[in-house]
Amino acid sequence: MGALNHLMATEHLGPDGVHERCERCTGVTIHEVRVEIRTESTAEENAQFSREPYRVSVCRECGSESVLRMNDA
Ligand SMILES: [Zn+2]
């Protein structure tokens, strides 16, 4: 008695580990996902578009990086 429940004990990948499909591995692998604010300074006049949040996922198997713009409206 008194044993603690092991929450997600078997597949605890951390807050950044998610399963996604990798184009290079041609399968589902573990990716580290983070959100970056990247600066697009191509047009100096359009300052409102200068900072965009991007979702960056890196495959832990092959290291390939896929970037997805979050404000895709
Ligand atoms: Zn991969």
Describe the structure.
The protein is mostly beta strands. It has no helices and 4 strands. The chain has a domain at 29-41 and 56-73. 0% of the residues lie in helices and 45% in strands. A 4-stranded antiparallel beta sheet has the order 1-2-3-4, with no helix packed on it. It starts with 16 loop residues before the first strand and ends with a strand. The relative contact order is 0.22. Bound molecules: zinc ion. Residues 22, 24-25, 29, 59, 61-62, 64 line the site of zinc ion.
Q: List low-confidence stretches.
A: 5-10
Spatial ordering of strands, largest sheet: 1-2-3-4
What's the helix-strand series? EEEE
Helix content: under 10%
- The rounded distance between the terminal residues' Cα atoms is 53 Å
Instruction: List all distinct small molecules, including ions and cofactors, that are bound in this structure.
Output: zinc ion
Quantity of strands, as a count: 4
Biggest β-sheet, characterized?
A: 4 strands, antiparallel
Q: Quote the average pLDDT.
A: 78
| Large-scale geometry | elongated
Residues in β-strands, percent: over 45%
The class by helix and strand makeup works out as mainly beta
Taking all Cα atoms into account, the compactness measure Rg is 18 Å
Number of helices: 0
In a few lines, what is going on in this structure?
The protein has 73 residues and is mainly beta. The protein has no helices and four strands. The protein is 0% helix and 45% strand.
